[in-house]
Design goal:
Blueprint: H1 2-5, E1 12-13, E2 20-21, H2 23-36, H3 54-67, H4 81-91
Antiparallel strand pairs: 1-2
Helix pairs in contact: 2-3
Length: 92
């Protein structure tokens, strides 16, 4: 799941030939994004997205947008129940 959230936007550390993927930071940011959405259903962030349910895949897509600090997100389907709870807490 971490690789999916950062696909094309991978974080690196070091420079030149010592440049390596910064998996620790990517894992931490993934966990933060999912917790900001108030999602406890995806317990293992190492789970491949292909093994997630449709609702969980939608959650990953929304988390991807939050990692980029998008001011808005256009979705083509109804939001899952956790989204209405998040909107209620963020508007108050």
């Amino acid at each position: 799941m971490v690789e999916n959230l950062f696909l094309g936007r991978e974080l690196f550390r070091g420079a030149g030939p010592l440049r390596r993927l910064d998996f620790a930071t990517m894992r931490q940011r993934t966990t933060t994004a999912l917790s900001e959405l108030g999602i406890g259903t995806i317990s293992d962030i190492r789970t491949p997205v292909a093994q997630l349910s449709g609702g969980q895949r939608q959650t990953v897509a929304v988390a991807r947008a939050t990692l980029e600090n998008c001011p808005s997100c256009c979705l083509m389907s109804p939001l899952p129940p956790w989204a209405s709870k998040k909107r209620a807490t963020s508007s108050s």
